[in-house]
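TICKET: design request
STATUS: open
ATTACHED STRUCTURE:
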């Protein structure tokens, strides 16, 4: 079996306990989990079985979402309600008090790991030392808190929705917020609702899974019946759109889960040992598929040498057996499997022979030209953004964390956010662009201007950055996740004689962009 089970972990079980229980029930040694949960915590615990264990690191490294309850007036040695109480008071805080301190916990922060944690110090786990009454100095670690929202409150408790990076200790966060409020605080309940792509809505309790295994019905419980679009989907362009719309159509007609299967790296990069400039990061590909087509079930497989050497027939069998595939949607030129021997025609025939469904989408033309990722890459490289957007069917997008810059824009009263994108991601030609800026999970973007280049007026290096001024916006969003939508190319990057000339041009650009978006 090669599969992923999303367990809704109950209290008093460790993540290791869950893995051990399933290993015994399934009689499979190769099982792992995607991110530890403390015994008192409940919620999403992805379990990876067989070949699927290759994907566990993607879940571990991904952002998480939690529902956490902060109880005021109590401080414990474990920083949660299960520990020994170190201090207790009747001091409380208001919602306004909470809102006043929360900004210091949003973005990139330094967090000192708790003594009751599995982090090692000189070969010893911290919790082992803590149980002996030994406390040692711990180095602070950098984590990112993307967002904290208040869900409800009582006189001595705040229920919070938290989105954060890997490595974040929520109990430490609650402890630190309590300290900032002056009341002290501890974590009284914690439920993880998302770990990367895995959500609580798709989870099952351990008891449900064990009962299903006992009755030889585990596959019916956690193996979705899927209609799957196969491809890499770089750019999620008009051609891809026809596949994805057909997935949704078939899913509705046949009561299947609409799904997309893609890979963590471009297959051509692995097969040819070369680097392909990608239109989108994997995060942006998934985001576009979800936002534009409403498909949330996106299976990401690790593409390595072993995958590349898999026969096309065996690959389809694996998708049917381990991922519940019963209907496939592919493009007319789809090639896959060892030596790219698999074709859309062969897949169609196999599906007919096996009682599976298969639709082949013909080539999609726009303005007389075949729509494909290679052509769109050429358009972006040739500084033809608006033409590229026509073939994409949406604005070109780039997503990243806001990084610290020189803050020169603030001295001009034109603050900018600084972003640098991962190697291998195709960035539009140097110049100034009209953009929409989406902060975090915002649905409606703010107009702005982005400069792509080396900032020749004030720069002293050849490092390419993307600096964006958000029009009529002055909030501090360092370390927050931001998505840029590139709508229009305005002008080339320029070197000005002085900062006043630069400021005047930026103001002119802002006026043009504001008017353009109105129209």
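STATUS: resolved
RESOLUTION: sequence designed for all positions
ATTACHED SEQUENCE:
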């Amino acid at each position: 079996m090669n599969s992923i089970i999303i367990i809704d972990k109950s209290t008093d079980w460790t993540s290791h306990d869950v893995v051990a229980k399933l290993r015994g029930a399934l009689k499979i040694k190769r099982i792992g989990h995607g991110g530890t949960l403390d015994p008192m915590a409940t919620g999403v615990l992805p379990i990876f079985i067989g070949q699927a264990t290759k994907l566990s690191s993607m879940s571990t490294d991904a952002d998480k979402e939690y529902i956490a309850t902060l109880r005021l007036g109590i401080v414990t040695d474990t920083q949660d309600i299960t520990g020994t109480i170190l201090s207790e008071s009747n001091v409380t805080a208001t919602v306004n008090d909470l809102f006043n301190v929360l900004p210091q916990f949003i973005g990139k922060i330094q967090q000192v790991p708790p003594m009751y944690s599995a982090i090692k110090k000189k070969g010893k786990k911290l919790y082992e030392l803590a149980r002996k009454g030994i406390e040692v100095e711990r180095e602070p670690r950098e984590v990112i808190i993307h967002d904290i929202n208040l869900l409800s409150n009582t006189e001595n408790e705040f229920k919070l929705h938290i989105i954060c990076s890997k490595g974040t200790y929520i109990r430490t966060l609650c402890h630190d917020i309590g300290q900032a409020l002056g009341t002290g605080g501890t974590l009284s309940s914690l439920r993880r609702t998302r770990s990367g792509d895995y959500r609580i809505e798709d989870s099952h309790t351990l008891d449900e899974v064990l009962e299903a295994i006992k009755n030889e019905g585990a596959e019916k419980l956690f193996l979705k019946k899927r209609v799957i679009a196969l491809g890499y989907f770089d750019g999620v362009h008009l051609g891809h759109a026809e596949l994805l719309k057909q997935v949704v159509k078939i899913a509705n007609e046949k009561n299947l889960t609409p799904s997309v299967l893609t890979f963590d790296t471009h297959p051509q990069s692995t097969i040819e040992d070369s680097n392909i400039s990608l239109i989108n990061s994997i995060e942006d590909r998934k985001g576009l598929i979800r936002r534009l087509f409403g498909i949330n079930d996106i299976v990401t497989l690790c593409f390595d040498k072993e995958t590349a050497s898999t026969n096309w027939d065996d690959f389809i069998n694996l998708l049917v057996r381990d991922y519940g595939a019963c209907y496939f949607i592919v493009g007319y030129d789809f090639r896959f499997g060892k030596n790219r021997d698999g074709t859309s025609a062969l897949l169609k025939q196999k599906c007919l022979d096996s009682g599976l469904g298969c639709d082949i989408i013909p080539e999609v033309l726009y303005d007389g030209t075949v729509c494909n990722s290679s052509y769109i890459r050429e358009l972006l490289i040739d500084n033809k953004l608006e033409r590229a957007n026509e073939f994409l069917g949406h604005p070109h997008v780039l997503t990243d964390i806001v990084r610290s810059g020189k803050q020169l824009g603030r001295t001009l009263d034109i603050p900018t956010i600084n972003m640098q994108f991962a190697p291998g991601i195709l960035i539009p030609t140097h110049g100034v662009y009209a953009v929409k800026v989406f902060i975090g999970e915002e649905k409606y973007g703010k107009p702005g201007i982005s400069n792509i280049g080396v900032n020749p007026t004030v720069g002293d290096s050849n490092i390419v950055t993307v600096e964006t001024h958000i029009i009529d916006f002055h909030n501090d969003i360092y370390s927050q996740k931001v998505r840029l939508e590139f709508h229009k190319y305005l002008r080339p990057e320029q070197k000005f004689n002085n900062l006043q000339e630069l400021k005047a041009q930026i103001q002119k650009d802002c006026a043009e962009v504001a008017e353009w978006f109105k129209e």
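CLOSING REMARK: The first strand starts at residue 3 and ends at 9. The radius of gyration is 25 Å.
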